Amino acid sequence: MRRLTLIALCLTAAACFPLRGAEPAAAAPAVRRIPVLTTPVTRRTFEERVVVQGNVEAKNVAMVPARLKATITALYVDEGDAVKAGETALLRTDDLNLKNALELSRLDLAVAECGVREKEANVERLSADLDRKRKDYERQKRLLDEDKIGTLDSVEAAESGYLQALASLKYGQTLVALAKEQQRQAQTAVRIAEKNLSDAVVLAPISGVVSQRRQEVGEMGDPGTPAFRIVDLSRLEVSAYLPAQYYGAIVVGQTRMTVRVGDVEMKDRLISYRAPTIDPQVRVFEVKCLLETPPDSVAPGAMASVSVVLRRQEGLGVPTEAITQRDDRRVLFRLEADTARQTAVETGMETDGWVEVRSPALAEGMPVVTMGQFLLNDGTKVDVRTGSAKTLAGGRASDAPAVVGAPPVAAAAPGKED
Known about the structure:
By secondary structure, the chain is of the alpha+beta class. It contains 4 helices and 21 strands. It has helices at residues 2-16, 96-147, 152-198, 389-393; strands at residues 34-40, 42-58, 61-65, 72-75, 82-83, 89-93, 201-203, 208-213, 226-231, 235-243, 256-261, 264-274, 284-292, 303-319, 324-326, 329-336, 339-344, 346-351, 354-358, 367-371, 382-384. The strands form 5 sheets. A 6-stranded antiparallel beta barrel has the order 2-10-13-12-11-14. Strands 3-9-8-5 form a 4-stranded antiparallel sheet, with no helix packed on it. It has a 3-stranded mixed sheet with strand order 20-1-21, with no helix packed on it. Helix 2 (96-147) runs antiparallel to helix 3 (152-198). The two termini are 54 Å apart. The model is unreliable at 1-27 and 395-418 (pLDDT under 50).
């Protein structure tokens, strides 16, 4: 009985004194708005790329040895020196014997020239003798035929003398031809001796910079042992190796690549070389890109990041962070006034943080949510903010505690409810 009395008193007190802060049942609850950042859908150029590591190399490199097997007597340049093709002397080898050989060759040439003049003078003498004997023969024959003066023996003797003189002239002319050939032979020997002497001094074969000096004065020079390495820094090329499956997509003179060396980026460089074969061991092939007049900070031997553009097309795009996974579908949230609408999209190529999207519901310029979308569902009311992630972080903790540092698209679990 006492228990029933206490219950009745509690009910009466509750009816007379309502709870502090209680609101009438008819009051409508406040609409919760999720703060978000948006980016408009943009028409962009998307590229299918393959990114590999490559090396910077000099297009023109010369390994320069001594041209003669002789002692090196002088070195004229050092590492780091600039040289000019055909003008800058690099080294000299011992040339004493070469100078003597040239002098002997010139003396032989002088003797040969004298021999030619001697043979030519002899031909002139034989020609005069032939002319005299021809006239004697003709006179003897005319006297015998017309005046019956003389004998047949005298005519035959004159004829024989004429024929012998003619043969002597031909022989003399042959000696002249032989002497001239000997003269040309001597001239060739002089040119060879001059060439050998000039080879004692080695000139730079290409313009560039001396990158290595491998021999010193007093060492034996040899055509098979390089003394200098010269690099042309005005024309470099980037070499990279691509997987075999991309071989058919590379067209020399059409396919482009972007090269980054340190902080230097060189865009839209045409591929200048594709290897004619694929390496059967590792299934890769080489491509090269020519770098005309590269920046001073790009040097041979540097590592390069190479991005080869395999395909390029225009399309609508959104930032990659706008895409999330819902129920095994890739979706984004577009805005209709202050309402978020979940929209399924088909994604394509991804370039520079933007992904190509295709959906009938999307149009260029339409705002899509790029931050705060993990708290949204279809029809959620939003509060569009401007600025960066710090803008959202400065809002109430109950508004969007998970917006800042939201996981990337790949981390969203399929079908997970926000």
